[in-house]
Amino acid sequence: MATDQQHRKAFISVARRKVARRLTRQAGTDGAVRFFAFMMWLAAAADPQARTAQAAPFDLQITQVARLAAAGPQANAEVEIRWTARVPRSTTIDAFDVLMEVRYSNGERASVRGESLKATARSVTLQVAAHPKANRTATLKEFHVSLRARVRTLASLTVVQQVAPNGSGTRRAGTSSAGQPAVFITEARLTPECAAGRQCIDVRWEANAPRNIALEGFTVSAEAIARDGAPQTDSKTAGATERQARLAIARDAEIASLKVTLVASFSALDSQTVVRDGSF
Fold it and tell me: Residue 19's pLDDT is what?
């Protein structure tokens, strides 16, 4: 978690940028003022602790475990559990699971679960026997709670392949590592006169992922540079099950270089557990 000092530095960094923008608007042709504004902006942009505070990771904390008051003697006791969750933009909560184990004054134990709670939930009330069956005088003494958040973290993988302008492009380009998605461009071929006034780039690829990682989709793009230096670009999106796409550029252009880029977006399932021990 970010410390108070990190938060203060992040606040100062934001203030610097605001002052820098204001000075820039007011500077006009005053070179000294513009230089001072630029230096303030540079100092704010270079502050690594400010960036760390702004990009805080997923955090889960149990904040309260308490038995609710009852109007009179009850067979079951209600225990309320509360928690907080700090969720980055790249993370999506699927559900929460709660396990509560209790210990009675005579040493006996019992447990109860709350499973697949909504992603928006920040509390749950569980019921447990107020007294063990073997000893009706024994009372609840201790709670042990395990809170698990099932989350998906979004990420992306980029594969780039250079293609010769003569139309060949069957070289295999990609990346693969243990436990990560494997993405390869298997073909990127220039096809002249595939449509009226256009020539096409046919792109094919392979993509596989471990069971705990789900492919969300692809973005394939092409950047062509003509002999006269003029750039041409095209891009398309493809679904998670698609493995080919056709891009198009002007037919009249004499291509000097061609670069094809494939971006694979995926989400990874990551389970985190927070445990707090003791008497609540």
Answer: 45
Mean pLDDT of 58-71: 87
* Distance (Å) of CA 166 to CA 24, 35, 93, 149, 220: 49, 49, 48, 53, 20
Q: With respect to CATH, is domain 59-151+270-276 assigned 2.60.40.10? A: yes
Q: Which of 249, 253, 255 is nearest to 236 (CA)?
A: 249
151: β partners = 93, 270
Q: Cα separation of 249 and 163, whole Å? A: 14
pLDDT of residue 232: 87
Bigger pLDDT: 129 vs 274: 129
Please, what CATH class does the domain formed by 154-269 belong to? mainly beta
Backbone angles phi and psi of 121, in degrees to 5: -65, 140
pLDDT on residue 274? 59
Angle, CA 24 vertex, CA 21 and CA 29 arms, to 5°: 175
Is-contact 157 264, C-beta < 8 A? yes
Q: What is the DSSP letter of 127?
A: E
**What do you get for the CA distance between the two ends of the chain, in Å?**
24
> Do the domains at 59-151+270-276 and 154-269 have one common CATH topology?
yes
In the chain, alpha helices (H): 4-27, 31-45, 48-54
pLDDT the model gives residue 230: 85
Query: Which residue ranges make up each domain of the chain?
Result: 4-54, 59-151+270-276, 154-269
